[in-house]
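Q: What does the assembly look like in three dimensions?
Context provided by user:
Components: two
Sequences:
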Amino acid sequence: MRDTTPLIVAVALDISAVHNTRMPLNLRTYHELAGADRSGLPEQIAAQRRRVAERLAGVGRLIAVMSGKGGVGKSFVTAHVARALARAGRAVGVLDADLNGPTIPGLLGMNHSPLPTPDGVVEPAVGADGVKCISMDLLLRDGAPLAFRGPQAESFVWRGALEAAALREFLGDVAWGALDMLLLDLPPGIQRFHELGDLLPVPPPVLTVTIPTPESRDAVRRAMRAASDRGAPLLGVVENMVDGLFTGTAGADLAAEFGVPLLARIPWHPTPDTWDQLARRLESPA
Amino acid sequence: MKFLCVDCDAQMVFEERQLPGDGTLAAAFKCPTCGRVVAMLTNPMETQLVASLGVVIGGRTVPPQPLETLRGMVATGKDDAFEETGMRDAGSGMREGPRWSGEAQERLARVPGFVRGMVKKIYADYARQHGIHEITTGVMDTARAELGLEGM
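A: Here is the predicted structure of the complete assembly.
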């Protein structure tokens, strides 16, 4: 008589796996396959990184201007510091990394001439005082939002990757030439800073902008903490829009908390001298 | 990504990529031992995600173009955002490019202006590399198939 014990046991235990008695395939893993795949996706990514590094080889200093808070005047400060540095004889560029709300070309008084694309690169536009710039504002139709082709359903899945790719191409495809300083004007929040940290060999030094209020202080603190945790040097704090509607001591508070200098307190109506002083301090913050 | 032929325990090799134009992608891989071919099919969202990384399944067929991901993906770009200076070489300034037939020009004119200069340069480079003096729609079709530019 046939031994039915295993079946009886299986029924008793209700082990459904008994019905799927296939042995594991014992597949080799990705890293155990020695041959390179023809797509070479890791190599393509590495080539992108090399392109960024090569393009930025002529840049003396890279500084990210950021804040955890919107509306504090990051772009305003960036543009005017860039102009002050240029007036002092420095070769300066601004990469407007605010892809969805770009304002740098307007602040630099740029016209919107077509950008030359010689020899596999894009030449930056040139604005007031000779400051070079790349910005989505130079590329988008007037008043149009940054919109991408592709399936709009669940676009959150790929939109972030696409914006990071745009940032990478601004870094890797724009022929900045020899620059003393390239300022990266970041949008509010810390997402773009993390993307920069992924694209660059090391996270860039950070210039932080705040307004005096406690609310701004609390938001900017998080951004500074994130940058610091990422290993970025904190250059100092600029407190914007002081002696006006806003009250508080955010600039001094943040400077003390993070042990960095309060580089400037920018009044509502700054003069060129205000920016010249900030530019000098930025070049030698100690 | 790599594909493994389980029966042969052999790494499959990339054969062909197709972009049918509906946002999807098909990539075929072949087992070098038994010849079995499998196809990876991605839906529009998956295809877009890969494209968003600026990488090409199957490997690059043309050199990187400046801001190529942006120019290929942005739907709201200005027609005149870029100068079409792709024919310039380092030594001698502007270089004579291949002629474009009337039909080829018409087809090129249908490409959005934001990306047209880049597309034009890719076809012109292809023609120059193959000793072609006039770009016709037939040349464009051949180049598109050879270079895997189904989206252009």
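Follow-up: The CA atoms of residues 70 and 91 of chain B lie 29 Å apart.
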